[in-house]
Amino acid sequence: MATLEGGAFDDALLGSRFSDVIFGRGGDDTIFGQGNDDVLFGEEGDDVLFGGSGDDVAVGGEGDDVLFGGSGDDALIGGDGSDLMMGGSGEDVLSGGADSDILLGGSDNDVLDGGSGNDVLIGGAGDDIVLGGGGDDVMLGGSGDDVLQGGEGDDLMLGGSGDDVLEGGAGDDIMSGGSGADTFVFSGGGGNDVVLDFQAGEDMLSISSNINDTGIASADDVAARATQVGANTVIDLGNGDSITLNNVDAEDVQDDPDSFFSVQ
Fold first, then answer.
1. Residues 23-55 pLDDT 10s
2. In terms of DSSP H, where are the helices of the chain?
3. What is the average pLDDT across 150-161?
4. Residue 246 in 3-state DSSP?
């Protein structure tokens, strides 16, 4: 295993076909891991890190960095600054960090964690786990059966194709499952959420039992809290929380609650 270190200026550092550890140090550096399993540190400056083949770890550090995983199962960690991360092929883990980042999963089953800041997270192909974290995030699962968790903030969550699970978390979230049989999860403290494309008999709203101390214990209990507001159905979940189902008739909800709700 070789160790390479840059200096205070803008360096181009190229690893070997073996497993390397490369430190960019100061300046705006470009680091290529090449073959095998490499560990790359951008450190100070606005750096560009290429993992190459192998299962690599790339850490941006300070500055606005660009991280490419390449092939293999990679871990990309943005650190401080507004970073762009692309997992590539393989099952990758991407972590955004403190600022507003862009995370692109790639072709396999990836985990994306935006961290704090207003992030854009796109899972891509595969069955991905997409975690918004703090901030107002834009999240897209892509193809595959994805899990999207918004966290804090007012998030836009798009499941894409596949059978997805979407949980907005705190904040006023807008959710669209896309195609497939999607599940929207509500456990209390979630704010005023909107579901754009709910399909009765295919999608499901999963409601926590006794959510917000409402005494809800069944699908009928939830349906009793549904009212018509314009073209939409609004469901009062107590404690200031609500779900708005766009272009859904409240009478349909109350006529067949089990096609809409699952109480867990």
1. 999 999 999 998 899 999 999 999 999 999 999
2. 219-223, 250-255
3. 98
4. coil
Task: Please give the average per-residue pLDDT across 13-23, as a whole number.
Answer: 94
Own/partner contacts of 98-102, CB < 8 Å, gap of 24 or more, are 100/135
Q: Which string of b and e fits 87-106 if b means at least 16 CB within 10 Å?
A: bbbbbbbbbbbebbbbbbbb
Residues linked to residue 232 through DSSP beta bridges, in sequence order: 229
Residue at 154: amino acid letter: D
Band of pLDDT at residue 169, cut at 50, 70 and 90: very high
Question: How do the domains of the chain map onto residue ranges?
Answer: 1-108, 181-264
The residue behind tokens 């109480």 is 263
How far apart are alpha carbons 113 and 95 in whole angstroms? 5
Q: Are strands 232-238 and 241-245 parallel, antiparallel or unpaired?
A: antiparallel
pLDDT for position 12: 97
CA dist., res. 148 & res. 75, Å (int): 19
Hey, is 257 helix, strand or coil? Answer: helix
Closest CA to 66 of 35, 45, 93: 45
* Planar angle of CA 164, 105, 26, nearest 5 degrees: 145
233 pairs with which residues across the strands?
Answer: 228, 245
Q: What is the rounded distance in angstroms from the CA atom of residue 123 to the CA atom of residue 76? A: 14
pLDDT for 191-210, tens place per residue?
A: 999 999 999 999 999 999 99
- Cα angle 205, 209, 212; round to 5: 95
Q: In terms of pTM, does the model score above 0.90?
A: yes
DSSP labels, 17-81 = SS-EEEE--SS--EEE--SS--EEE--SSS-EEE--SSS-EEE--SSS-EEE--SSS-EEE--SS
